[in-house]
Design goal:
Layout (H helix, E strand, L loop, with lengths): L12 H27 L1 H8 L5 H17 L1 H15 L1 H19 L5 H4 L2 H29 L7 H30 L1 H8 L1 H19 L5 H8 L7 H6 L2 H36 L4 H15 L1 H13 L1 H27 L12 E8 L5 E10 L5 E8 L6 E7 L2 H22 L2 H8 L5 H17 L2 H9 L11 H17 L2 H7 L2
Antiparallel strand pairs: 1-2, 2-3, 3-4
Helix pairs in contact: 1-5, 1-7, 1-8, 1-10, 2-3, 3-7, 3-19, 3-20, 4-5, 4-7, 4-19, 5-7, 5-10, 7-8, 7-19, 8-9, 8-14, 8-15, 8-18, 13-14, 13-16, 13-17, 13-19, 13-20, 13-21, 14-17, 15-16, 15-17, 16-17, 16-21
Pfam families: Sugar_tr
Keywords: Cell membrane, Membrane, Sugar transport, Transmembrane, Transmembrane helix, Transport
Organism: Arcticibacter svalbardensis MN12-7
């Protein structure tokens, strides 16, 4: 490489670990804030949208969730420019405040029953603020850590930043399950879902205190002292043909494919388990949470391994695994809850009727029909009805212990693919671009790849499965198609000379 700033020495391992900790804590909280919305999508669809068409309400919730991803590239442009002009530290301190504030505000918005269409409009606005903030956060954190790390271990040290996205999702699931357990199901569905949003304010305050003690990255401080920062990072990043070529290569040869693998293996998996397989809410979240927890260390494994054998081959192997194994994996997942292939136990059929008073004083009648199967699976059809209103039906399945752990294993395999493509990618992107435009240059392809191609995965996939004549697995053609294109481009155009060209 010809970028002399890469050779700036690290002040010591203790300082480096403090940098990683401070960056990771803040980034984890930002991911928690961003994903708490997606983790509660099923419940939020009943709170902020009309209930006349549950499928349309759920798709509207996913579309609102996806809107936060679509604006992430704009956040990358705005905050990337600031990061290359004034520094990494203060820029991603600002993004943290914006993210935490908007998340807290979502927890305060009245529901559709109270303010009508004002509710989804306010939620959409705050999701856009979240997306803009996250667009500036990741590039700053990854760049900050990479510019403190020695070049021969950059993959290893930046991989700890990579764990924060998955751990943020894990944290959001943990807070949801704990809150639900403490206050009860009915209270959680009614008002308790707000608690995870409101808790964000405490987490953000802690992170701000930690980040205020951080110093600017040594590489940026050096070029700033030497007067080598650029006046127009956007023009330098995207106006020069050589650098624009690297931006496009990063997007279509790596980050777009990485984005669809990431969101298929975690968010679409959760949507598929809850909406297509109808797995009971708590059990479905436990399945995802356990799979995430077991697989998370592999971000560091593959990040460190990329320092030895290169970034490209590991990332491309992850893409190939998704292309080859997604459909077999999801067919196996679906079979675990497919009641048509299970044997009922008629003698254990249970029907329960309950009458409860609503806040308005009306009698709500709930009828639960519970069916047991020989393999230990239990299915429930729950019918809830208010006077002079149509009954609302809900189906849910409790898996047997054996099927539960099989599904955990299938989720783990998908997250393992995620760790292969995501573990090395921060170091890969940092090394493509010179220091004075790195924040801007790496942030845009990352957030287009993840925010647009990846973030739209649940919405597009579920929309495809909703088409007439579609199978439950047709949604997978979207991530498989994007991953295939990236695999071909990455294998053909990404090689050792790529980095040399970028840093000439």
């Amino acid at each position: 490489m010809n970028d002399p700033q890469m050779l700036v020495p690290v002040e010591g391992k203790s300082k480096l670990w403090s940098v990683i900790t401070a960056s990771s804590v803040g980034t984890l909280i930002e991911w928690y804030d961003f994903y708490i919305f997606g983790s509660l999508a099923t419940i939020l669809s009943t709170q902020f949208f009309p209930l006349a068409n549950p499928t349309a309400a759920f798709l509207s919730t996913l579309a609102t969730f996806a809107a936060g991803f679509i604006v992430r590239p704009f956040g990358a442009l705005v905050f990337g420019r600031l990061g290359d002009l004034i520094g990494r530290k203060y820029t991603f301190l600002l993004t943290l405040v914006l993210m935490g504030g908007s998340t807290f505000a979502i927890g305060l918005i009245p529901g559709f029953a109270t303010i009508g269409y004002g509710a989804p409009i306010l939620v959409l606005i705050l999701r856009l603020v979240q997306g803009l903030a996250l667009g500036g956060e990741y590039g700053g954190a990854a760049t900050y850590v990479a510019e403190h790390a020695p070049a021969n271990k950059r993959g290893f040290y930046t991989s700890f930043i990579q764990t924060t996205a998955t751990m943020g999702l894990f944290l959001s699931l943990g807070v949801i399950l704990l809150t639900r357990h403490v206050i009860g199901v009915d209270s959680f569905n009614s008002w308790g879902w707000r608690i995870p949003f409101l808790l964000s304010s405490l987490l953000v305050i802690v992170s701000i205190v930690i980040r205020m003690r951080m110093h600017e990255s040594p590489l940026f401080a050096k070029i700033k002292a030497e007067g080598k920062t650029v006046k127009n990072p956007l023009k330098e990043s995207f106006g020069r043909k050589e650098n624009l070529k690297m931006v496009l290569l990063a997007l279509f040869g790596a980050t777009a494919g990485q984005g669809v693998i990431w969101y298929t293996g975690q968010f679409y998996a959760l949507s598929f388990i809850q909406k297509t397989m109808n797995i009971e809410f708590v059990q479905s979240n436990y399945i995802i949470a356990i799979g995430l927890l077991i697989a998370t260390p592999f971000f560091v494994v593959f990040g460190g391994w990329s320092d030895k054998i290169g970034r490209r081959n590991i990332m491309m192997a992850g893409l190939l695994c998704g292309i080859l194994f997604y459909r077999p994996i999801y067919k196996q997942m679906y079979a675990l809850s497919d009641l048509s292939i299970k044997t009922e136990m008629p003698a254990q059929l249970q029907i329960k009727n309950e009458i409860a008073k609503t806040e308005s004083g009306e009698n709500k009648v709930t009828r639960t029909t519970e069916t047991h199967y020989t393999d230990g699976t239990v299915s429930r059809i729950i019918s809830s009805q208010l006077p002079e209103q149509q009954a609302v039906l809900k189906s849910e399945v409790d898996l047997s212990t054996r099927s539960f752990w099989m599904l955990v294993g299938l989720v783990f395999v998908q997250v393992l693919f995620v760790t292969m493509v995501y573990g090395p990618i921060a170091a890969f992107l940092v090394e493509l671009f010179p220091t004075n435009i790195r924040y801007t240059s790496m942030s845009l392809p990352y957030h287009i790849g993840n925010g647009v191609f990846g973030g739209l995965t649940p919405f597009i996939a579920i929309s495809l499965t909703s088409l007439p004549g579609a199978t439950p697995f047709d949604g997978l053609w979207y991530p498989i198609g994007v991953a295939t294109i990236c695999l071909i481009i990455g294998m053909v155009y990404i090689n050792k000379s790529t980095y040399n060209t970028a840093n000439d």
